[in-house]
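I have been asked to look over a protein record a colleague put together. This is what I was given:
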Amino acid sequence: MNRMKVFLLLAVVIGFSACQSRNKQNTEQEMEADSPVIAAPTEEVKTLTGVVGDASMHNFMLVTSKGDTIFISTMDQEPSEVGNFELGDTVKVDYIEEEEEPGTSNIPTAQKVTVIGKGNRYK
């Protein structure tokens, strides 16, 4: 009988401590989520220059002066910042590389596209 009481007491203590640590973790997570401190983005803004070779609704293809072809995403960006170019235009692209999944190739995300030369589309 004595062993049974000790076992029950031990089970109750473990149960309360388990609930308490989960509660503490949840409280810490909620405090971090509600915190007004905004962390600076770790992504570095980079610049590319090239000619727009192709475009679709949420990305475009840029051909650099070295002949490299780069696909650039415009997903979730304001059209006024990334949509004022046409095929054949020479553009400067301010972008960030966002890591989607480790080990996969990253598609640059355009932050701003500036037309620096109009292309001759009708040759």
Observations:
- The first strand starts at residue 46 and ends at 55.
- The chain has two domains: 1-39, 46-117.
- Helices lie at 2-34, 79-82.
